[in-house]
C-alpha cells in the first residue's frame, strides 16, 4: 500500500492547532504597504481559523497534520 502524502502547498499555508482546527495567515501583507491603512495592516498580522465549510477539503490535503 502506498503512503498517504501531504499536499506541500497546503502545508506551507496552513497549520493544525492542538484542537484539530486549521489556522492561516492573510495574504497581501508583504509589500506596497504605504497605501494600506493602519487598521488593515494590523488585521493582516493576525492568524485566522479556517471556515467549517473548507475544513473537510483541507483534511484531505493534509492527512498527517
UniProtKB/TrEMBL annotation:
GO terms for biological process: translation. Residues 31-65 are annotated as: Disordered. One of its GO terms (cellular component) is cytosolic large ribosomal subunit. The keyword Ribonucleoprotein applies. Keywords: Ribonucleoprotein, Ribosomal protein. The keyword Ribosomal protein applies. Residues 48-59 have a biased composition (Basic and acidic residues). It comes from the Bacteria. Residues 33-45 have a biased composition (Basic residues). GO terms for molecular function: structural constituent of ribosome. PANTHER family: 54S RIBOSOMAL PROTEIN BL35M, LARGE RIBOSOMAL SUBUNIT PROTEIN BL35M. Belongs to the bacterial ribosomal protein bL35 family. This is Large ribosomal subunit protein bL35. The lineage of its organism: Bacteria, Pseudomonadati, Thermodesulfobacteriota, Desulfobacteria, Desulfobacterales.
Amino acid at each position: 500500500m502506498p503512503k498517504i502524502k501531504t499536499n506541500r502547498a497546503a502545508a506551507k499555508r496552513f497549520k493544525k492547532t492542538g484542537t484539530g482546527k486549521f489556522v492561516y495567515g492573510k495574504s497581501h501583507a508583504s509589500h506596497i504597504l504605504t497605501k494600506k491603512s493602519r487598521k488593515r495592516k494590523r488585521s493582516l498580522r493576525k492568524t485566522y481559523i479556517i471556515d467549517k465549510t473548507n475544513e473537510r477539503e483541507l483534511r484531505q490535503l493534509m492527512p498527517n497534520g
